Amino acid sequence: MLFYRAALPLSRRTLTFLSGLIRRHRRRIGSRWRRLNPGQQALLTLVHLRKGEPFTELAEGFAVGATTAWRYVRESVDLMAALADNVHAAVKRAARLAYTILDGTLIPIDRVADERPYYSGKHKQHGMNIQLLADPMGRLTWASPALPGAVHDVTAARKVGLIDAVTGAGVTTFADKGYQGAGGTIRTPFKRHRHRPWLSRGQRDVNRSHARIRAIGERAVAILKTWKLLTKLRCCPHRATALVQAILVLQLVEEDRYSG
Where do the domains of the chain lie? Predict the structure, then answer.
């Protein structure tokens, strides 16, 4: 096994936040001696989430067993996921903004035995559907619980209660054509269909303005995918929600936007 020095593109603030969370958890449960101290456990978790390194490589790098590395990461992820906003808290924060941008993305997964619910016809691969909210600057503000990839975007937004929440709060939300028919305060571009084969000049102008706004929201998807673990999940699909929620909290801490 060869070793080399490597850098992690995260700030000291994020490491301090997670290590403090782990330290308080250990004190609360009365945990005694462990192989790694809270700072090392936090660093191990961040390396796994940000760089996507498998547990066998983490174990070698931190001189622990692969099972221990898995247990440390799972514990840390669950602690952070518990801090993530639910949809109502997220929309309450979004109500302070001029508008929000809604988009969906697919987190690829390994094929599973019951694969049909996870196959996305749109992306032509198996995965989990995640709904994202971005602010007018394109910064990630909220990520939904994960749903099977076969679920359509507008259906996923309804299932997690996002459409009802933003409509109830009166938050103007821009979304793509995949959310046609969502209603409420969801704004989608004009779409051609058999009763409207051509769009008017005014409708095309509206679509161009809408596209410029929505393009900013694509940054939120790109930000989420900088956490390389989400390039392809090789764990149980049911762990996707906790992983995404934990990464959301870390991203907010990294940008100094986490308010607790």
Answer: 12-81, 87-236
Residue 230: which of 152, 132, 84 has the closest Cα?
Answer: 132
Dist CA 209 CA 192 (whole Å): 17
pLDDT-derived band at 169 (thresholds 50, 70, 90) equals very high
3-state secondary structure of 233: strand
Model pTM above 0.90? yes
What's CA 174's distance to the chain center, in Å? 18
How many alpha carbons fall within 13 Å on the CB side of residue 39?
3
- What letter represents residue 149's amino acid? G
- Helix H or strand E segment including 140: strand 140-143
Angle at 170 between CA 168 and CA 175, to 5 degrees: 100
- Tell me which DSSP letter residue 196 carries: B
The SS3 assignment for 143 reads strand
Tell me what pLDDT residue 5 has: 79
